[in-house]
Amino acid sequence: MKKQLTSEQIDKLIKMVEKGGNTSENTCQAGISSEDVYRTIVKNIKQTREKQGITQSELASMCGCSLSFLSLVERYQKNLSAVSLVSISRALGVPISTLAEDYEDGDIIPELKTSLSLLSKKEQQKALKIIQDVFYYGS
């Protein structure tokens, strides 16, 4: 797993995107470039959409943006506003913080987070109990 962004870094990125700033000119205090974070978010939006079997057209309709806008975003040709980012994350059922996390290819954590986020709190607690029961190796 690569670096996980703090909520402060995510807030900085959202403010930068909201201002329409050039992401390549911005660097977070932790040494992570805003361009890298932005690309990670867009990559994760596309991967999450595809894993959920949602077309670009369907996602555009779900979040109230145009298909051409979403297509440009997924090709890194258009910046997201904070409002668009929130709308897309809500439509996908995934927190922005999850979209901002950079994982290695093949890492199942994002898929687990997405799957768990779609469950009710009660179902999440049951899933956690099952995981703890299966992987508990204590005496």
User: What is the name of the CATH architecture?
Assistant: Orthogonal Bundle
- CATH T-level fold name: 434 Repressor (Amino-terminal Domain)
- Could you state the oligomeric state of the chains shown? single chain
Number of helices: 8
Number of domains: 1
Number of beta strands? 0
Strand proportion: under 5%
Major β-sheet annotation: none
Fraction of residues in helix? 55-70%
CATH superfamily: lambda repressor-like DNA-binding domains
Mean pLDDT: 78
CATH class: Mainly Alpha
> Which class of secondary structure composition applies to the elements?
mainly alpha
Question: Ranges with pLDDT <50 over ≥5 residues?
Answer: 21-30
| Alpha carbon gyration radius | 16 Å
Helix and strand element order: HHHHHHHH
Shape: globular
Describe this structure in words.
The chain has 139 residues and is mainly alpha-helical. It has a single domain, classed as lambda repressor-like DNA-binding domains (434 Repressor (Amino-terminal Domain), Orthogonal Bundle). It is 61% helix and 0% strand. It has eight helices and no strands. It has helices at residues 7-18, 34-51, 56-63, 67-74, 82-92, 96-99, 109-117, 121-135.
SSE map:
Layout: H1 7-18, H2 34-51, H3 56-63, H4 67-74, H5 82-92, H6 96-99, H7 109-117, H8 121-135
Helix pairs in contact: 3-4, 3-5
Brief overview, please?
This protein has 139 residues and is mainly α. The chain has a single domain, classed as Orthogonal Bundle (434 Repressor (Amino-terminal Domain)), CATH 1.10.260.40. The chain has helices spanning 7-18, 34-51, 56-63, 67-74, 82-92, 96-99, 109-117, 121-135.
